[in-house]
TrEMBL record:
Compositional bias of kind Low complexity: 125-138
MF terms (GO), sorted A to Z: ATP hydrolysis activity; nicotinamide-nucleotide adenylyltransferase activity
Record has Nucleus as a keyword: no
Region (Disordered) location: 120-154
Upper classification of the organism: Eukaryota, Fungi, Dikarya, Ascomycota, Pezizomycotina
Official protein name in the record: Nucleotidylyl transferase
InterPro entries, alphabetized: Rossmann-like_a/b/a_fold (IPR014729)
Annotated organism of origin: Delitschia confertaspora ATCC 74209
GO cellular component, one term: cytoplasm
Protein keywords: Transferase
Length: 342
């Protein structure tokens, strides 16, 4: 383990009480959104806010691929300056809560953000080490555009990464929670772009999550309609690499089939979806980009590797800081579902 890594893990160990305190303060409040930490803070108000929302149980190279793809190859409409939010919901729509593990996930999110920031520096193609340059939270007062595909040195170094909490369980409510936060952490005019893998968009569009609306998918107006959402929201969906030998991969089809799925939504060819409340104009707010290396790596796979003490695999599937923390803390040793963590 490098000296930098040792120092970073030591720093995080000493910060665990602070993380626990921040988590308790949030869950005990009526707030729906709060930034608890910022890596590489800048005060420049963003015009584009990339939001990577996950259970981070644990953060993986799949999360890294989604974030790096957006920052290094932004869409043609993604205006500068840009900022990234790693968002963790304390109320997951699919999984029973496991409060004892939340502080550990936040700790791993900090390490992941450090590793991500290092990997975005000019000349770095991967994350190999984490650093100890954490700073306290400082909130700011189709296809990649060829001219923007390789951000300038200044932008690559200066993009801020916020680590934030929300109580909103659904994507349709998370951007609303951010915009309603007081004091406002970001300009109300900032465009929110949620970074998803293709497997996640299938859940986003699943009517079972919107049974309170009639028809159910009409609930998506809270996300796609600017007047209702309070601003512009979009989805950037990274296609899942196709692997014939992987049953999960076959479920979503080839990359061209994944892109065609969204095209059909915009062309009105999916009448079943429209009967459930989908509006074809919403597809204009969904961009599908090519698969990146690492996309498709599941957190379940990492947890099983950690339970079996297969540290080489954990190191391949996580960034270095996260892998080091999992091993040091013995996370997932008792329950590879991630329900009980040290």
């Amino acid at each position: 383990m490098s000296d930098d890594m040792t120092s970073c893990l030591s720093s995080l160990r000493s910060r665990l009480p602070e993380i626990e305190s921040a988590l308790h303060a949030f869950t005990s409040s009526s707030a729906q959104f709060r930034i608890i930490r910022t890596i590489n803070p800048t005060k420049t108000p963003p015009k584009t806010l990339y939001i990577l929302d996950s259970s981070f149980n644990p953060p993986s190279v799949a999360h890294l691929a989604l974030a790096k793809s957006a920052v290094r190859s932004p869409g043609a409409r993604d205006e500068k300056p840009r900022r990234l939010v790693l968002l963790f919901s304390t109320h997951n729509a699919d999984k029973a809560p496991s409060p004892a593990s939340f502080e550990q996930r936040l700790a791993m999110m900090e390490l992941f953000a450090e590793d991500l920031h290092i990997s975005l520096r000019p000349g770095n193609s991967s994350s190999t080490q984490s650093s100890s340059t954490e700073t306290m939270a400082s909130p700011p007062t189709n296809r990649p555009n060829p001219d923007l595909s390789h951000p300038s040195t200044d932008e690559a170094e200066d993009i801020s990464i916020d680590i934030a909490l929300t109580t909103a369980p659904y994507y349709t409510d998370k951007s609303l929670a951010i915009r309603k936060a007081t004091p406002p952490p970001y300009p109300p005019t900032a465009t929110h772009i949620h970074l998803l893998g293709f497997d996640t968009i299938t859940r986003f569009l699943n009517p079972k999550y919107y049974t309170e609306a009639k028809p159910p998918l009409s609930a998506l107006s809270r996300f796609f309609d600017k007047e209702v959402a309070g601003g512009e929201n979009r989805l950037r969906v990274t296609a899942r690499p196709y692997d014939e030998s992987d049953p999960a991969s076959r479920e979503f089809g080839t990359e061209s089939e994944q892109k065609r799925f969204v095209e059909r939504l915009g062309e009105g060819e999916d009448r079943e979806m429209e009967n459930k409340g989908w509006r074809r104009e919403w597809a204009q707010s969904i961009e599908v980009v090519d698969a990146e290396e690492g996309v498709g790596v599941s957190s379940t796979r990492i947890r099983k590797a950690a339970k079996g003490q297969e540290w080489h695999d954990v190191g391949r599937l996580c960034t270095s800081g996260v892998a080091g923390w999992i091993r040091e803390r013995g996370l997932y040793g008792e329950d590879d579902r991630g329900v009980k963590m040290a």
